[in-house]
Design brief:
This protein is an alpha/beta fold and 278 residues long. It is built from eight helices and 15 strands. The chain has one domain: Metallo-beta-lactamase, Chain A, CATH 3.60.15.10. The protein starts with a helix and ends with a strand.
């Protein structure tokens, strides 16, 4: 009877669930619709595994899409264990290299299972059930090709010489009349290139954990989020989120929700209205 009760409680509904996992000083966002899941980033440790366990049905061991906005430790370390524990159907990752131990561990976990890897560029679109997803950035593949050939041979040439945060892929999701925007760690330079492409959204995942070098006034005026979610660790050494960013979010009327204060944040939408699961 307990098993039946637990199963009924975990049966998927027809709503979109956005789960911003509390992974400390990092990012991990689970997009869930019915039996489809897309995980964007995995944080700096294994906390993301617990988040998936709490927000996916216990019998569901499949992640349809695993996405890495950019290959830095606070976004990819947790994905190694996700790849090991779950059946991942496809991986979305940048086409550039970051020759670090963390990137190599992720690379080895993905190639050990021979997972298909795709590098997104502006204009790419795909669907997760009834959720439409559009890639707004980057404009083109950058750096050396990290995933090469049938054997996924790692090509270690010159590393990307620019600001790697600016290579983050930016993803806009639409579920009927509900829109959300995931921004990785982009800064003001990339935001300026996106202001005429994003449009207004209900929910914004604030870039770079609330850094003062992101979430510029011009960008926020264009996006006009009703809700701004900041993923940051308690008492982190970077001072995220900064007072400057919080002030700019307040100026556009966004309600701010922070994982360092509220832990994991879940937003549910039926395609018209949305609400929080507390």
């Amino acid at each position: 009877m307990l098993l039946v009760g637990l199963t009924i409680r975990q049966l998927p509904d027809d709503k979109l669930h956005l789960i911003f996992c509390d992974v400390g000083q990092g990012d991990a966002t689970l997009i869930s619709y019915k039996n489809w899941q897309m995980l964007v980033d995995g944080g700096p440790g294994d906390a993301v595994v617990s988040c998936l366990g709490e927000h996916m049905s216990f019998w569901d061991r499949k992640v349809e899409v695993l996405a890495v906005t950019h290959p830095q430790a606070d976004h990819i370390i947790g994905l190694v264990e996700v790849v090991r524990r779950y059946r991942v159907e496809k991986v979305i990752a940048g086409s550039y290299l970051n020759d670090t131990a963390e990137f190599r561990a992720f690379y080895e976990a993905v190639t050990a299972k021979n997972l298909p890897v795709f590098s997104p560029v502006q204009g790419d679109k795909f669907r997760l059930g009834q959720v439409d997803l559009a890639v707004l950035w980057p404009r083109q593949q950058t750096g050396d090709l990290a995933w090469n050939g049938q054997g996924h041979e790692l090509v270690l040439g010159a590393e990307y010489q620019g600001e790697i945060n600016e290579t983050s892929f930016v993803l806009k999701g639409t579920f009927s009349g509900f829109d959300f925007l995931l921004t990785g760690d982009i800064g003001e330079a990339t935001e300026r290139r996106l202001v005429d492409k994003v449009g207004q959204v209900e929910v914004l995942k604030v870039a770079h954990h609330g850094s003062k070098y992101s979430s510029s006034g011009q960008f926020l005026e264009e996006v006009r989020p009703e809700v701004a979610v900041i993923s940051a660790g308690q008492n982190n050494r970077f001072g995220h989120p900064t007072a400057e960013t919080l002030s700019r979010l307040e100026a556009v009327g966004a309600k701010v929700f922070r994982t360092d204060e509220m832990e994991t944040i879940e937003i549910v939408s039926d395609g018209q209205k949305y609400w929080f699961v507390l």
